[in-house]
Amino acid sequence: MSKYDQYKKEVLACTQWLSEHGYFGALRGTGGNVSVRIEGEQAVAVTPSTLSYRDLSFADICIVDFDLKVIEGEYPPSVETGMHIAVYRNRLDVNAVVHTHQVKASVLSLINRPMPALYDEVALHTGDVVEIVPYALSGTPELIENVSAKLGNNCHCYILQNHGALNLGATLEKAWLNVELLEKSAETYIAALSTGREITPIPASISDLLVEIRKEAQDKLAAKNKELLEAQ
Ligand SMILES: [Zn+2]
Fold this sequence. Notes:
By secondary structure, the chain is an alpha+beta fold. Helices cover 43% and strands 16% of the residues. The protein is built from seven helices and nine strands, in the order H-E-E-E-E-H-E-H-E-H-E-H-E-E-H-H. It has helices spanning 5-20, 81-90, 103-111, 120-126, 141-148, 172-194, 204-230; strands at residues 33-37, 43-46, 62-65, 70-72, 96-100, 115-116, 129-133, 157-160, 164-169. It has a nine-stranded mixed sheet with strand order 4-3-2-1-5-9-8-7-6, with helices on both faces. Helix 2 (81-90) packs parallel to helix 5, helix 3 crosses helix 6 and helix 4 runs parallel beside helix 7 (204-230). The protein is globular and about 55 Å long. The two termini are 23 Å apart. The structure holds zinc ion. Residues 31-32, 99, 101, 138, 163-164 line the site of zinc ion.
């Protein structure tokens, strides 16, 4: 038993569902990774590197501090752990990060076209734009730098050029939902683009209103996380 068991179980459930539903790109691969912030600590629960997600047990999920030191776990953490930690350092309104190789969003990663807010229920959760993060090799400081440079827009979904997607959330459940919302938006956006016709985003007034609604919840969580960390 460990005080981190609940976090590990949560990460495992999400990882296995996403893997089984094709969001990591290959059922037998180990692409994609999932993490959650440990409340009040400079640490995360994150999927291990190179292990098949089908065979994972919750005890295999790693606990890693913000300096990449392993606190618990037999296996090395995901090579993308640095990217996850960069999100938690930069965005106190985020408690979960899901990096996928989801197929439809990956198409956008090849045409390098940011996706505007297309549906109000999606924009409410994911933000008013899905930006493209310029390419850098997986697990490198360059990729971390490129991701960090985009986080200031306070959105919850990003496309990693020639790679996949990065989905954030106030909870793992919400980051997980954003994975699905991003995929739906990407699928319909690509189909709409293929018609060659003009694409209508939602009106700017609605998009601005949704940004305001999201901002209120984001500010609350950021303030709570700041307080918890300062209490340490
Ligand atoms: Zn990846």
